[in-house]
Prior knowledge:
By secondary structure, the protein is mainly α. It has one domain (3-203). The chain has 12 helices and no strands. The protein is globular and about 45 Å long. The model is unreliable at 1-13 (pLDDT under 50). InterPro entries: ACP_PD.
Amino acid sequence: MTGRELKIVLYIVGVNYLAHAYLSFGSDVVLVGNMVSDFVKGKSLEAYPVGIQKGIRLHRRIDDFTDAHPVFKEARQLLAPAVGRYSGAFLDIIFDHFLATDRFTTDGLAAFSQHVYSVIRKEETLLPPAFVQMFNYMVRQDWLYHYATREGIRRSLEGMVRRAKYVPAGAPIYALFERHYEALGDSYRKFFPELEAYAREHFAL
Length: 205
């Protein structure tokens, strides 16, 4: 099973949506594609407008870069004792926490989150039903904003554990997040500037 397929299994809260939204660099149409990408298989992206296709491709490049990056691989090992091969999906969410606290003020994150929801809502008739179902949960629970808080991350991580068929019930993922908080933050700070530079380069293509 690929990293992208694992994220589909965990789709209720298992994708780093804040990072993908942030790495759309202010383009609303790219944002839509970047957010919906994991629900669009293969060449079916060609059914979408060109700008959304660009966002889908950018999302896939971001995921490939992330999964292959040595810092990301190393950080995954901190979570593997609890969730095994699913550690990358959980780490995505944890890195969104550090992104939320690193690049946004509280008010800025609130405004950014509402903008993302508004942009996607305008285009939802174009989007896969499974994504729209997930998106409705996202809006109601305001995931993007709550990534900034430890309580929000706890709910997300524990929700992923409940929904992931192959993760042991009660896997202590949040305890590992707390135990390795500083190390995970250091990994984010090493990794994210490189990801941002890579995404910006491919955004311009």
